[in-house]
Amino acid sequence: MTSTLDLDDSMQHFSGQSLRRRAETIFREFSKKKPKALQNLTVDEVRHALHELSVQQIELELQTEELNRSKEALINSRARYFDLYNQAPVGYFTLNEIGQITDANLTVAALLGIEQDVLIGQPISRFMVEEDSDSYYLQRKQLIKSSEPDVCELRMVMNNGSHFWARLATSAVHIRDSTPVFRVTISDITEVKNANEALRMSEKDFRSIFENATTGMVAADKTGNMRYFNEAFRAMLGYESDTLCGMHFTEFSFGDDIPGEMLLFGEILNRQRNKYRLEKRFITCDGRILWVDVYVSSQCGNDGELVGFISVVSDITERKEFALALAESRQKLRTLASHQEQLLELERKHIAREVHDEFGQLLTALKMDVSLIRLRFSDNAALMEKTEDMRVLVERTIGVVRQVASNLRPAALDFGLVPALEWLCEDFSQRGATNCRLENGGLEIALIDTQSTAVFRVVQESLTNVARHAQASEVVISLQADHCLLKVVVADNGQGFDISAIGKSSGFGLFGMRERMLALDGTLSIVSTPDLGTTVTIELPLSKGEAP
């Protein structure tokens, strides 16, 4: 490679000595050819000739100055070119006709791991994997006949023996005697190649998972039409592949499920969400209804625009049928339990009346007999003492009978819910240290016996829990009702409890309270915080004939 300094010296030599020697030679030849003409010149002609020579000399000096400026610009331009050439981020090199490197920049030297001066004159095949070198040789042969550059990717070998992938853009250039040289740009594409290979393997793995998954998988375009799907999904619906491809998902969806899914689908199209999941029904090719769990996720291109959807579809028909059967079984059990509870309440009512009426009458008669004995034998002190003990015992027994009858079923329940709750509050306050009051705002609530009994029992169980666990000083029972809903709230100021621990308890108290309400289409909720008391809320729907 010719340096800038060598070029400068040669130009100075050419413009200084060579031009003068050439001028002197031309002048001598001119003098030999026309000596007489020069001897016969007049003074004016000589002066004119000297004038012309002076002007020409000035012109030559000006031309020389212009040439010097051009030379300096050329030198600077050439220096900039060499800087850009050597420091370019892309490798540039030149090959001669037989494939030897005749020129190369620093980037090529760095890529190949060899000094730039050592690189010159080396055959390019030395730095290529053998099979790639052969194909590149054939490519260069073809380039001689074509003016279009060609690009190839091949494996290069560094000076230390390690390999890297490179992209070579080669073009053939014919100079002077039509001998071709090859201009080549080279760039390291190892990372891109590795990334592409990783992507290819990832796509291969995805395709393998997609095709072999036992769960249905579907790829659809952004309108919801099927593009491709796996065998599990096709077998699920029973359609032939050619028929299923291109179908819109609404074509095999159950009609009642379409509006709800289209709402979610529209939210994805409007970029309000990027996925959704729901349980829906499919109609198979032979008309059967399948319950499926569908997970839909949007796919976006590199520009962020929506291009389609990927769906994962699981057949949950068996699970759904089991859940429906379980729910039906639970409902039957709940109905049976409610029926048993009603029978139990009837039995309690019957026993309470029998105990109250039969034992009450017998004990009243016994009390009257004791009173008659006291009248007839009043002069017998020992007998009077004994009959007094008997009277006290009978009075106590009458109280026990009344208490047993009330516990079985309070007589106040026969008069409605409000009187029964009033009696319950009074009885609870008398039997413990906790004050209980009823706030009903003067409501007169007419409920059927089943509803009144259920609400009464739930409130009774709530008060029992307060007495056992709450350590409260006050309990307030409040009633609210409108034309369609009865609301009963039992609130205490006790120590409260951890709601999350309820599920770990093996007791049936709270469970039984909820089941009583569920049997009547009502609800029961509990709010409690340690040291802040507990609130039990009952909500029971009322029919038109049961409004206050």
TrEMBL record:
GO terms for cellular component: membrane. One of its GO terms (molecular function) is phosphorelay sensor kinase activity. Gene3D superfamilies: 1.20.5.1930, Histidine kinase-like ATPase, C-terminal domain, PAS domain. The keyword Ion transport does not apply. SUPFAM superfamilies: ATPase domain of HSP90 chaperone/DNA topoisomerase II/histidine kinase, PYP-like sensor domain (PAS domain). SMART domains: HATPase_c (SM00387), PAC (SM00086), PAS (SM00091). Residues 150-201, 276-328 form the PAC domain. The keyword ATP-binding does not apply. This is PAS domain S-box protein. It comes from Candidatus Dechloromonas phosphorivorans.
